[in-house]
Structures are given as structure tokens and as C-alpha cells.
Amino acid sequence: MGVADALIQTSLLGEAVDNGPAAVFVADENRRYIAVSKAACELLGYTREELLALRVDDVAENVPGWTEMEQSRTVLGEAELKRRDGSKVTFRYVAGDTIVAGMPVFVSVGIPG
Alpha carbon of 97 to those of 6, 23, 88, 105: distances in Å? Predict the structure, then answer.
């Protein structure tokens, strides 16, 4: 695959993730959100800017599996997330750690359920 093809692939993948049906949350090692998909914003009722100003602990208390994820790299789980209006939603997810642009991050992808 050439450089142009790789750039197109990356762009298409990014657009598909952002516009897709799954809620995607990317947090740094300090548990601050650094990227979120449109579905994540809609799920929690925040604008992207509002959600990016929050930390994982602001929307999910005692995230199940966080320590396990840090140790085993990947975890399947279910958490109660707090929406902007104070209501809660159950979130089924797969989460894991990876490196993006040389930075360690934690990615969580899931759906309400």
C-alpha cells in the first residue's frame, strides 16, 4: 500500500468511526477524554467540546475493568454512564490500551444496552 492509499484508508476509517453507530471514547493515561465520536456525544447528551472537557470519572464512577484493562490490555465490560441531564445509561463496551501518535491511550467502543 502506498502513502496515498494509507492516507485515504486512515481518513476513511476516521470518518467511519466518527459517523458510525458505536460510541467511541479515547482517554489518556490521566483518564481525560481526548477524542470522542458523534455517537458518544449523542449517547451522553454533550457537545464534543463539553465531553472533551471531562474525565472518565465524570461520567462513570468506578469504571469496571479499568485496572484489569491496564494490566491485561483488553477488557469486555458494562458500565453505568451518567448523561448530561443526570439520567443514567448502561453501556456495554470493549476497551483496551494502544498507542496513537506515540501517546498511550485507552479506547472504549460500545453501545447502549
Answer: 23, 16, 25, 6
pTM over 0.85: yes
Whether 27 maps to a domain, the answer reads yes
Q: To which residue does cell 447502549 refer?
A: 112
86 grid coordinates: 443526570
Structural domain that includes position 76? 22-112
Q: How far apart are CA 25 and CA 40, in angstroms?
A: 7
**pLDDT single digits (tens) 63-74:** 655 666 667 778
Give the model confidence (pLDDT) of 17-40 as tens digits: 888 899 999 999 899 999 999 999
